[in-house]
Amino acid sequence: MSSHNLRDHMTEAELIFTALAELSTRQIAQATDATGMEDNTTAAKAGGGIARGARKQLESQTGKPVVSADNYLPPPSTKKVLAGKGKK
C-alpha cells in the first residue's frame, strides 16, 4: 500500500494559506519566546487566525471558496476478508 502526502492533494491556494499559517505561527512563537504547550498553542491560534483572515478576504473578493475537493484523493477501498472463506 502506498502512502500519500496530504499536501500532494491540496490546491495551490490551500498550500499558500497553509504556509501562511505555519510561517505566522513560527514567527509569533519566536517573537514571544513561546515555550511549552500553552504558549505554542496561543501562537498557533494567532497564526491560524492570520491565515483565516486572509482566506476570508480572498474568498469575499473572488466569490469562490479556497478549500475545494479539486485535488481530493478518496480513501482506498477496503475489502473485508472473511476468515475461513475461500480456504481449502
In short, what is this structure?
The protein has 88 residues and is mainly alpha-helical. It is built from two helices and no strands.
Protein model, in words:
This protein has 88 residues and is an all-alpha fold. The protein has a domain of 57 residues. The chain has 2 helices and no strands. The relative contact order is 0.15. The model has no long low-confidence stretch (mean pLDDT 86).
Averaged pLDDT = 86
Inertia-based shape: flat
Question: Mind telling me the C-alpha Rg?
Answer: 20 Å
How many helices? The count is 2
Q: Give the fraction of residues assigned to helices.
A: 40-55%
Instruction: Detail the poorly predicted runs.
Output: none
Largest sheet: none
Distance between the termini: 27 Å
Backbone structural class: mainly alpha
Order of helices and strands: HH
Strand content: under 5%
The tally of strands reads: 0
Features:
2 helices, 88 residues, mainly alpha, flat
List the helices and strands and how they pair.
Elements lengths: L11 H20 L4 H27 L26
Helix pairs in contact: 1-2
